[in-house]
Design brief:
Blueprint lengths: L1 H13 L13 H17 L10 H15 L6 E9 L5 E9 L1 H22 L7 E3 L1 H11 L17 E3 L7 H31 L4 H6 L4 H5 L1 H8 L5 H6 L6 H24 L11 H35 L7 H9 L3 H37 L1
Antiparallel strand pairs: 1-2, 3-4
Helix pairs in contact: 2-3, 2-14, 4-6, 4-14, 6-14, 11-12
Pfam families: PRONE
Organism: Selaginella moellendorffii (Spikemoss)
InterPro entries: PRONE_dom (IPR005512), RopGEF (IPR038937)
Length: about 375
């Protein structure tokens, strides 16, 4: 049965998810990226509870990830080496080695994967538990006490809510939860770093270049452009104003900053000094060069500041959806190895963020319980 399932999975990848065999299939790189994303959604879902994975789901995750990752065994690079013959003569030949980015990052991602599953396994026996919100509302009405709720549940009333003992969690339990949160936070940072590195190495597709505005200032907006232009630039102070902003607004800002960065980079790389072709234009040539150098330095400064702002934005809001550039890169990427690294690190990043959020939920409910006492 597993062999037949594996054949079906690989057939779907080879046909670009178009099982009809027609011409509507996507490229192999995107098909593999979608396969990893869909597998993660099937196994982990939204992860609203801190509890171990079922044996079936854990087996499914490990089995199908092994199938997908087996593709990387055949992604190699040729490197020159010397081969010596019995007569003492030697000749330079090309040998295949695992590609450097896969050789370095895949073992790291496997380790992060194992750490996340082990963390979930550690929630088998806990002092907290979960109830439906309807139960929590009924109990609060019967006792005449205010209902202990989470900020995210104000609109999503159907989600389960954690409960703790009346006197709160024990000191040992809280210490353990904090230790798990710190550990998973390291996993989150590592997976984010790998994902950012892989995305930075992907080619920017032409469709994104065509969508960019004529100048970075119009992309950023006057307010953000002035903040970047100030002599005393502070990304932390700028981000402090976004604490209460909606996720959609923050994502829009990230898209605008990223668009401005690439607009300026394109102008810096394509700007070349030129003359009007007149032999007596030496004086104007000097002035033009001075203006271009000054303009180039200013753009380099703006690029560096915008990149710092974007990095701080992604670290301050780790659960932020993909930017428009990331979506375009993933969609138009043709490199299978990069696709595997990007999607694998992305789903691990999402899982780590979900675990941290659920731990924060429990600690928040515990704090409310202690306050009520």
């Amino acid at each position: 049965a597993e062999v037949e399932m594996m054949k079906e999975r690989f057939a779907r990848l080879l046909l670009g998810e178009d099982m009809s065999g027609g011409s509507k299939g996507v490229c192999t790189a995107l098909a593999i990226s979608n396969a990893i994303t869909n597998l993660s959604a099937s196994v982990f879902g939204e992860l609203w509870r801190l509890e171990p994975l079922s044996v079936e789901k854990k087996k499914m995750w490990r089995r199908e990830m092994e199938w997908i990752l087996s593709v990387t065994d055949h992604i190699v690079e040729l490197v020159p080496t010397w081969q010596t013959f019995p007569d003492g003569s030697s000749v330079e030949v090309m040998v295949s080695n695992p590609r450097a980015d896969l050789h370095i990052n895949l073992p790291a991602l496997r380790k992060l994967d194992m750490m996340l599953l082990e963390c979930l396994d550690g929630f088998s026996k806990t002092e907290f538990w979960y109830v439906d919100q309807s139960v929590a509302m009924s109990e609060a009405e019967e006792q005449g006490t205010p209902r202990k709720s989470l900020p995210r549940q104000e609109e999503k009333w159907w989600l389960p809510t954690p409960r703790v003992p009346a006197n709160g969690l024990s000191a040992e339990s809280k210490k353990r939860l904090q230790h798990q949160k710190d550990s998973i936070n390291q996993v989150l940072k590592a997976s984010m770093a790998i994902n950012a590195q892989v995305l930075s190495e992907m080619d920017v597709p032409e469709v994104y270049w065509e969508s960019l505005p004529k100048n970075g200032r119009s992309s950023l907006g006057e307010g953000f452009y002035r903040c970047l232009s100030f002599e005393q630039f502070s990304p932390e102070a700028l981000l402090a104003t976004l604490t209460m902003a909606s996720e959609h607004h923050i994502l829009e800002i990230a898209n605008r900053v990223e668009a401005a960065i690439h607009t300026w980079k394109r102008k810096v790389s394509s700007r070349h000094p030129h003359t009007d072709g007149k032999p007596n234009a030496r004086s104007s040539w000097g002035g033009l060069m001075k203006d271009l150098v000054g303009d180039g330095d200013r753009r380099e400064t703006l690029i560096a500041r915008a990149e710092t702002l974007l990095l701080c934005l992604k670290h301050k809001f780790p659960g932020l959806p993909q930017t428009l550039l990331d979506i375009h890169k993933i969609q138009y990427n043709k490199d299978v190895g990069q696709s595997i690294l990007e999607s694998y690190s992305r789903v691990l990043e999402s899982l780590a963020f979900s675990i941290i959020s659920r731990i924060d939920d429990v600690l928040h409910i515990d704090e409310l319980a202690m306050t009520a006492d």
